[in-house]
Amino acid sequence: MTHFSAPRRPGPSGAGPTPTRRQCLQALAALAAPGVLQASLAATPQAVDARFLLVFLRGGYDCASLLVPTSSSYYYETRPNIAIAKPGDAGGALPLTADWGLHPALAGSLMPLYEKKQVAFVPFSGTEDLTRSHFDTQDSIELGQPVGGRRDYRSGFLNRLATELGVQPRWHDHLSPMAFTDTLPLVLRGGYDVPNTALGAAGAAKPGIDDRQAGLIASMYGGTPLAAAVAEGFQTRDEVARTMQGEMDAASRNALSTKGFEGTARRMARLMQSRYNLGFVDVGGWDTHVGQGNATGALANRFEELGRGLAAFADEMGPAWNRTTVVAISEFGRTFRENGNRGTDHGHGSVMWVLGGGIAGGRIAGEQQALTATTLFQNRDYPVLNDYRAVLGGLFARTYGLSPAALARVFPQTRPKDLKLV
Question: Are 295 and 194 in contact (CB under 8 A)?
């Protein structure tokens, strides 16, 4: 579904024009033919060229497989089956610094951007929310309000950012936010009217053995002493698959799958190139409790698909990429140690991704520390040393020139942390 309300651009009194019929028709046209719409909007005057896209990875992705702590011997001790090998070894991480490597599935997508200094990573990032609940922590991050206080579910931090930009003369007539989702996400709910439109469909992975193959195998054992055991095995497999798929779907909150994300990313880029300068999209499927793999496998496939999509977004943005910042964030990281199912469980600290043609990338930013048996949070997780609100606050200050008072309204009770990312 698409919410057709044109963004309200409040003046000093908070009032603003209602959407015109032409604006609504343009929004409808964006759904049907974004590539055609691009040509008609290319000449739209843009006094403010900065663009920002927030990518929410729903499900809590395993950041220790993305940004690999290659100098930590403890990492390899605690992950005998799922660790990403050191650079130079078979299936090894791509070397970034003396301490960090990148998952090899991103060799053709993010690594070239990193080498061009268009990607930075902020490890040990996240929120002080300790529920380890997908839903509670996703809500907490999207709201951007102080942890432990009373939550106002009518006020997401990107909506508050839009409100602050909307009252500034230089942004007043040019701010155009959009949620590339089928429902308006919590992060963009609030007093500033924001439209939403879904550009892709969620997908599901196919099982290793489909129903036809299972039927053939069962028929092979029909009438033998193993027939009952085979039938029971397939029944158990189906029940487990339904349960795990249900859990992953719930954690993903109907977000896009990484499958097909490249096409969705290109459609987003065409729209952000010409019409929208503040965007949000969520991508699900990161809840890897079982069999997440290492250099290959389920998680590697998702990294490869997501990385390809982000690289496609950068490519499709064209010259506007130099004025674009993309931040990828997740509700939490995962346990530093692998579990008994060769997966990882809900953790705490994570890694933020920052991409853009004009960022100060090619580096690992923010406060860091060695990863040993004694430095883990609660003896299990990455600690949070870089509060995501502080990091984004510093980024917004540099991107938009927001005053301390404005930043305090976007992220209450938070001191911005300037990592000089832009």
Answer: no
Tell me the C-alpha distance between 85 and 420, whole Å. Answer: 31
Q: What is the 3-state secondary structure (H, E, C) of the chain?
A: CCECCCCCCCCCCCCCCCCCHHHHHHHHHHHHCHHHHHHHHCCCCCCCCCEEEEEEECCCCCHHHHEECCCCHHHHHHCCCCCCECCCCCCECEECCCCCEECHHHCCCHHHHHHCCCEEEEEEEECCCCCCCHHHHHHHHHHCCCCCCCCCCCCCHHHHHHHHHHCCHHHHCCCCEEECCCCCCHHHCCCCCCCECCCCCCCCCCCCCCHHHHHHHHHHCCCCCCHHHHHHHHHHHHHHHHHHHHHHHHHHCCCECCCCHHHHHHHHHHHHHHCCCEEEEEECCCCCCCCCCCCCCHHHHHHHHHHHHHHHHHHHHHHHHHHEEEEEEECCCECCCCCCCCCCCECCCEEEEEECCCCCCCEECCCCCCCCCCCCECCCECCCCEEHHHHHHHHHHHHHCCCHHHHHHHCCCCCCCCCCCC
Closest CA to 124 of 176, 197, 174, 67: 67
Give mean pLDDT in consecutive 10-residue pieces for the chain, a chain of 422 residues. 39 39 39 34 48 97 98 98 98 98 98 98 96 92 93 97 92 90 95 89 45 71 71 53 48 60 94 94 95 97 97 97 98 97 97 98 98 96 98 97 96 97 94
Residues 110 and 365: their CA atoms lie apart, in Å, by 16
Dmax (CA) for the chain in angstroms is 81
One-letter amino acid at 223 equals G
Decide: 160 and 409 in contact? Cβ < 8 Å: yes
Instruction: Note the Cα 129 to chain centre separation in Å.
Output: 18
Please report how many Cα atoms fall inside a 13 Å half-sphere around the Cα of residue 191, on the Cβ side.
14
Instruction: Give 12's contacts (C-beta < 8 A, 6+ positions apart).
Output: 167
Is residue 114 within 8 A of residue 362, CB to CB? The reply is: yes
**Crossing angle for the helix pair 261-274 and 298-317, to the nearest 10 degrees:** 30
Q: Which two tokens stand for residue 56?
A: 């929410």
The closest alpha carbon to 1, from 137, 184, 135, belongs to 184
Kindly give the pairing relationship between strand 67-68 and strand 101-102.
antiparallel
